[in-house]
Amino acid sequence: MSDCRPYKSYLFKYHIDNPTLAGQQSNKMKDYNILKTLCKRIFLMGSGNFWYEEDEIGNDKKILYKVYGTIIFFMYGFMTLLEIMAAVFGDFPEDEKRDSVTFATSHTIVMIKIYSVISKKELIKKLNHDLVRVSELYEQEPLMAEKYRIMKINVVAYFVTVYGSGACFVFEGFRKMHEGSHFATVITYYPAFEDNSILANAFRFFTTAVLFVMLMTMILTVDAFTMVNLIMYKYKFITLRHYFETLGREFDENNVQGNSKQAVERLTNGFVEGITMHNELIRLSKEIDKAFGSVMALQLCQSSGSAVSLLLQMALADQLTLFASMKIIFFVAALFFLLGLFLCNAGEITYQASLLSDTIFYTGWYACPAQRRTKRNLRHMVLQACTQAQRPIIMKAFKMLELTYGTFLLVVRGTYSVFALFYAQHK
Length: 427
Known about the structure:
Oligomer: single chain
Number of strands: 2
């Protein structure tokens, strides 16, 4: 992390001059409180403690917690295994066979995503620490309120689409039960389709409950966690840009008042701190990629592959009930909504980072008197900072595919093209 001690007096002055910053230490919109609250929810789901402060949330090394987490993930894994067996070996009607393939594929990818996050717990702890601390002193209340609102809208909308899809599967199961068949949401190898015993029906309800808990683990531990980190990282660049804009305005004010020497000194000190924060943000892009890059890459595969399968189900089915149609629509919406959130926020990071170069250039350095070539020559620092800011920060999947708005549109068009091809062959 950046060390602010050499510029402590300058930062303190800036902090006092901006009362909206000084009152933020206990605000729920602060990155510290957002990430800590999310880590608490993740801890309750049995995924472990991702918070960097010891004993603030809970101890995931305790035997009881380990047993709790093991039981939960054993149920997830066992259910997914039975879904895979149903897709490969099961003898089910066509509609349930299709559902078994969809669930087996999707839940296998979900389990891999969950494992990829849990296996990087120590890395994510350090990322949380660094992400909270960088530019913490300069987070302005209106900007943080906007960030918090966007996070809430994204997470709540995704939650609604995921559980809306799950609810439609449940309603369809009850409809079948009402028509004389049995209740079914998750299609597993056991029980067989013909088995309508009390034990078999109890197991079907049990797997439905496991599915809904698994969806919550998926949302909190993987999808919302990744989404929050991307949005938070994006706003770090916006905060840094506002920091340089404030630095330039302050320099102009001091210079106009005739305090040119003090203005140059303040601008130089502030510029060094700004460069330090920018370097830290560039480093964090690699840490975010290490922590969540595999999640975003797997989501690309899951969204495109599962969407083709689901759309074919809808197109080729002779007759679909309302709830059967709705469960497919919600499922596809959840897949592409999450993919859109990942890719568009990653693309927004690239865009916000690209704006820094112009902001740095217009800080007012050109109004400073010429300096001798010293270690802290302002013009030399501006040149280096602008050059560095012009190198785009691009998040990538599989270290090849750029995560941008264009990639999202490419995936959507590609998915539809594959669907149209398979549909034409079946016709």
